[in-house]
Amino acid sequence: xxxxxxxxxxxxxxxxxxxxxxxxxxxxxxxxxxxxxxxxxxxxxxxxxxxxxxxxxxxxxxxxxxxxxxxxxxxxxxxxxxxxxxxxxxxxxxxxxxxxxxxxxxxxxxxxxxxxxxxxxxxxxxxxxxxxxxxxxxxxxxxxxxxxxxxxxxxxxxxxxxxxxxxxxxxxxxxxxxxxxxxxxxxxxxxxxxxxxxxxxxxxxxxxxxxxxxxxxxxxxxxxxxxxxxxxxxxxxxxxxxxxxxxxxxxxxxxxxxxxxxxxxxxxxxxxxxxxxxxxxxxxxxxxxxxxxxxxxxxxxxxxxxxxxxxxxxxxxxxxxxxxxxxxxxxxxxxxxxxxxxxxxxxxxxxxxxxxxxxxx
Length: 361
Hints:
This protein is α/β, with parallel strands linked by helices. The protein is 33% helix and 23% strand. It starts with a strand and ends in a 12-residue tail after the last strand.
């Protein structure tokens, strides 16, 4: 039994899900059917949630995995027309939810038109962009209030989501301003006037020393070497931080869970994150048994590159459908003297040892 209808709109395949509430019992079958849509349909996928009144957090993680599978084929997955209850669950997940959301289907198609314009090379002022905190983002007129990119090389951006001028341009513009004012700047502008170099020290050969009149010029004393910096205290290993994060999530210790996350992943203040996690846990507890997670093993060894690290691990999960394995990739950054988790991505579920439930009729 299919849980949705399919409609083709140009380069988009619109999946209109007609389940009133996407509970935990429907998640596995819905994810399997969406995987079939990815295999059979072409183009990008839009999940129309206009008829959905409630959604379990496990369903949102399933949407993340569908988008991850689509991105490997250079395709996109988006959500449109989600109701207030669904949006509340999405906001509770914070940055862990990676599927872009739009208010209406027309907004999705308008976004696609903007990407097509960028692919053929639009002039400045023709590329629609939602990076409102970019210095090149401007509103053309008050009537339509559409934000566009005014950079002279807008045709080189391609996708506003991966714009190389975003945030970097603040430094570029600051450097250009300093250069016009004749001020020194790390971002650009005039260089500081350096003091003249001291005259070179005279160097003589052995023959010149033997036949020289008077003593040899004495070399100046060597400059003092700066004291070496004190050794950095050994930080907790990245894999230990990940294990502590999973154990904190399993024991519902949201304070310890927040201590493992970088500020960007908290999605606000630490208190707001703890409050949102409590709300999600209470919603799960009302709907049935709460899934249990635990750290199984490392899938690959830790990869540490300077101030960044990657932990590829396998996590256990026990819910009402049985026990399964979930592969997750944690990316961390060293902030101060400790490692903090900056992003979490899932690589899909492994096979379940228990038989699946019969399909709902």
